[in-house]
Amino acid sequence: IRRPPRSTPLYSSAASDVYKRQDLNTRPDPDQVLIDIADYVSDYEIDSEEAYDTARNCLMDTLGCGFLALRFPECTKLLGPLVEGTMVPHGARVPGTQYRLDPVKAAWDIGCIVRWLDYNDTWLAAEWGHPSDNLVAILAVADYLSQVHISEGKTPLLMHDVLTAMIKAHEIQGVLALENSFNRVGLCHVLLVRVASTAIATHMLGGNKEQIIDALSHAWLDGSSLRTYRHAPNAGPRKSWAAGDATSRAVRLADLTLRGEIGYPSALTAPTWGFYDVSFRGNSFLFPKAYGSYVMENILFKISFPAEFHSQTAAEAAVKLHPQVKDRLNDIEKIVIHTHESAIRIISKVGPLNNPADRDHCLQYMTAVPLAFGNLVAEHYEDSFHQAHPIIDELREKMEIHENPIYTKEYLEPEKRSIANALQVYFKDGNSTEKMEIDYPVGHRRRRKEGIPLLEAKFQANLATLFPAARSEKIYALLKDQEKLEGMPVNEFMDLLVI
Predict the structure, then answer these.
(1) What is the pTM (predicted TM-score) of this model?
(2) Is residue 168 within 8 Å of 209, Cβ to Cβ?
(3) Which of 33, 41, 91 is CA-nearest to residue 207?
(4) What is the DSSP string of 152-192?
(5) Angle at the Cα of 301 (from 296 to 307), degrees rounded to 5?
(6) Can you tell me the distance from the alpha carbon of 427 to that of 329, in angstroms, rounded to the nearest whole number?
(7) pLDDT tens across 202-240, in order?
(8) Distance in angstroms (rounded) separating the CA atoms of residues 378 and 306
(9) In degrees, to the nearest 5, what angle opens at C-alpha 491 toward C-alphas 140 and 122?
(10) Residue 248 and residue 245: Cα distance in Å, rounded?
(11) Fewest C-beta atoms under 10 Å: which of 336, 449, 491, 495?
C-alpha cells in the first residue's frame, strides 16, 4: 500500500469539519418530513366525497387486477406460506385463494397478484408509481386485526377505515412523487410504497405519532432497490412482485417498531450517512403542496390496456388506426410516434424482447400489437403469442420515436397531467393514415364520466375469471354501493373473496 508523502495531510480541513460534525452525539429532533407524514396520518380528517368514491372504485379495480393475475402460473407459483402447511391463527386472507397467512406474507402475496399484470392505477409526476400497491398492506393488516378484535370481543375494523387508509397512503406516495424524481438517481418507486405503507400500517396497528416517526425512519434507512429490473436490457418479472415485497417490509417495520425498536430521527438529513447524501445526491425533498386528498381524486386508472401507463394513449391511438392498416401491414414504410420524455426514458426499446415483463415495458411492442390486432390484452405478452406473430417485430423495426416538447411540458403541469401520444402510419405508396393524437387516456380524471362504466365492466370481467356468477354479482353489487361497503366489517368483506 502506497502511503501519501508526509507533507500531504491525510484529511483536508473540510473533511476534518465533517468528522467533527459526525462526532457530535446529540440526538437531533426528527426530520420534518417524518413529522409531517405522522401528523397527516394521525390527525387529518378526509372530508372529500370524491376521494371516497374514487377510493371505492380503486378498491374494485385493484382487486380485479389480482383476480385476473391468478390465471397465470408464473404468478401463482410465488404465493402461499414459506413453509408448507403453516397454520396462522387469525391469518389474513389472500383474495381469490384459500391462503390464510401472517400479515407480512399476506401483504407480499396480495401485492404480487395486484401488480403482476401491470393493470392497477397509476400516478405520474416527477416520479412514477402505483399507489394502490399500498392497499395490500392495508387489507392484510385490517383483516388480521379485525379477526383478532372479534376473538377478544372487540369491534372489527370497517371498510370505511380501509378506504380512509387508502386515501392517505395514495396521498403520501403521490405528494412525495410530485417533484422528487427517484428514477433519475436510479432508485425504484417502490421505495415510496414502503414509506406510505409503513406510516399507515403503524397507525392501524395502534402506533402513536412518535412510533409512526420511528417506523418511517426505518423505511427510509432501508434505502431502495435499483430500477435495473425495469429497464433494457434487464427488464424482468421482479417488477411484478417488487411492490408486494415493499409492502410486506412495511408491515414488518411497523411490527418491529411496536415491539419497541427505536427510530433514527435524522434518517434523511444526517450528513454523509443519511438518505439525502447517500441516495439523493445531497438534495432534500420538495413539497409543492400539503397532504390532503389530491392524489386519490386525480389518480389514473388503467382501464383499456394492461400496459405501462406512458403507453396507454399510444395503444388507444393504435386501436383507432387498426381498421386503416390491418389489411396493409406489409405495405407500411414507417410508423412515427410522437411522445413525451418520460415515455422515451422508461419504455422506448429496440432489439430482442426476452419475456412478458420485457414486452409490457416496450412502447413499440405495446403499439404494434393493437395496430396489427385491434386490441392489447395480457395474453399478448406471452412468449407463445409473440413467437407466433413475427409481424409484431417487423412493425417495431419500422417505428420512429420522437419527443414532443409540448407533451413533456403538459405531462408535468399540475392542472393537466396529460400522458399524450400521437401515432401516424406511412405506406410505401406515399399515402398515410391521419395523425391520431390522444392527450388523456380513458382512465384520466378528465375522462372519468367515460371511464367509470368501463372500469366497472373490467371488474365484472375479472370477477368472472374466478368466481361463480352468483358470487360475482354479490361482490360487484357490494362494491357499487358506497354506503353498504363502508359499513361492512373488513373480515366479512374478505370472507366474500375466499375461494
Answers:
(1) 0.87
(2) no
(3) 41
(4) TT-PPPBHHHHHHHHHHHHHHHHHHHHS--SGGGTB-THHH
(5) 140
(6) 9
(7) 999 999 999 999 999 999 999 999 999 999 899 999 999
(8) 6
(9) 45
(10) 5
(11) 449
